[in-house]
Amino acid sequence: MKTWGTVAVSGLLIIAALVTGSDLLMIAAAVVAGWRIAVSAWQALRIRLISIDLLVVVAAVGALFIHNYWESAAVTFLFALGTALEKATLQRTRGALGELVAAAPDTATRLRDGEPETVEIWELSPGDVVLVRNGEQVPVDGRVRNGHGGVDEATITGESVPAEKAAGSAVFAGTWLRSGVLQVEAVGIGADSTLAKIIHRVEDAQDDKARTQTFLERFSTWYTPGVMLAALLAGLLTRDVELALTLLVIGCPGALVIAIPVSIVAGIGRAAKDGVLIKGGEYLETAARVDTVVVDKTGTLTNGRPELTDVIALGSWSEDEVLRLAARAETASEHPLAAALIRGAESRGLEVPLIDTAEPVTGHGIRAWIDGHEVTVGTAALLRETPDPAPVLALNERGRTAMWVGVDGVAVGVVAVADTVRADAAAAVARLHRRGIRVVMATGDASRVADNVAAQLGVDEVRAELMPEDKLDIVAELQAAGRVVAMVGDGVNDTPALARADIGVAMGAAGSPAAIETADIALMADRLPRLPYALGLARRTVRTMRVTIAIALVTVAALLAGVLLGGVTMSIGMLVHEASVLLVIAIAMLLLRPTLPRGQ
């Protein structure tokens, strides 16, 4: 408000001076608008920095000495106005951070001996159970003990559709319960919550400087003294003080100074609002240059757990009968594939009663006794009659794990499971290709499994049967070939490769403080299409930076030509400068527009 108050008072004084013709009012306008600029210039000089503010102060004071009061008032007023606009813009572009801070809850309803009581957040301890009613905010990170409801997690993941929560589900502080009632056991409270870590990350990222910004700051340390020296020489050679002062004003690279920080803050803020955390300006610039993405398969391109894919019935048996027998036998097994068969049967509406009598056969499968019959699920070694291997071989060739289902030693069918491809993975790969980005799949799985997934998704290259250190070698190999590499993963085994890559991307980072802190880019939602979106936003931000830098440089060059050819005065020069600043700000603000397609 103080900045805008200064601008308002100075503007009113200028209007009064123009109406009354008073030189004193015009001088007063210059002093009101210029004293803050002078203080800023002095503070910079104290740390041996010749700032742009000094150019304006020298030009304004010089104009007063040659009795050009209007020029002095106009220059200081316009510069003060530009500074106020820049501050307002930075505050506006930090809007995403402000919304995150505002989302932090202050109170919670704690259950003590079954009775609800309202307490401050700081009064809670891990293990406390809080009650969240329909329409209320979730006050802590935790796990649902009882209840069922839909939670709006937009502040954390950027998801627009409420996520269904039930007993055992994770919930995050700052999200909103849109339906139902939940009892939540507190795990992360206050500064330990995911929301607090996101706020901290976005705050640090928006303050981080891009390489371009750092270069321009080094450039300005030489540029500003150079402009002052050039103006002095011009004044001495031409004996035209007004020309020298005009050159000082013309040389102010205001738009150049504001172009980079506004673009960075806007780009990172927009990404945060859409559930993508970018570590800082330098990483934003690097992400814009990525031309190769190395993607882990399991849990990234695929769902990360086996699911039922095929049921083949033999003889007079039906598919439902084969699947029901297999699922019932597997109720006595703790093998991961057993759960896939049971889920598959239940998804088809089949009842799967538990059985009491079964024995695992190491390396082959399981043998169970159901309704007086011996039922086996596993390899052909569990059968007394050797069946035609063609069905199993065909499924194995497609990257699926196939198992014989036998009754009393005779094969009655085949069931197969596989880690299924994510529904959105093919579209994400296609979007990366449209951006000219090569996609390399790296996995520890067998080649036939990896090739099957690659064929479904259209990735460019497959590297299979890898150890964690092999993924690191792949990243190093691609970098040695001149590629800018982003590594995408969601597991601890990917950490070395994530660290080595030019950009490390963590998938589904919500609820993982380590991923939020360490990844260069953290995709809060477990959605692969956020990756091409993040890389596209980075490119758009860097493109905006380049456009605004070009506008700033062209403006300075055009004004200098105007001064040398005649016709551009000090006040006109500053007016054009501030107009270029407004144009640069307007272009940067376009980054705040939502561009994430719905459902991604």
Automatic annotation (TrEMBL):
Protein name (record): Heavy metal translocating P-type ATPase
Family: Belongs to the cation transport ATPase (P-type) (TC 3.A.3) family. Type IB subfamily.
Organism whose genome encodes this protein: Corynebacterium nasicanis
Keyword entries, A-Z: ATP-binding, Cell membrane, Membrane, Metal-binding, Nucleotide-binding, Translocase, Transmembrane, Transmembrane helix
Transmembrane segments: 12-35, 47-66, 219-237, 243-269, 547-568, 574-592
Annotated PANTHER family: CADMIUM/ZINC-TRANSPORTING ATPASE HMA2-RELATED (PTHR48085), CADMIUM_ZINC-TRANSPORTING ATPASE HMA4-RELATED (PTHR48085:SF5)
Record PROSITE patterns: ATPASE_E1_E2, COF_2
CDD domains: P-type_ATPase_HM
Subcellular location: Cell membrane
Top-level taxonomy: Bacteria, Bacillati, Actinomycetota, Actinomycetes, Mycobacteriales
Keyword Transmembrane helix in annotation: yes
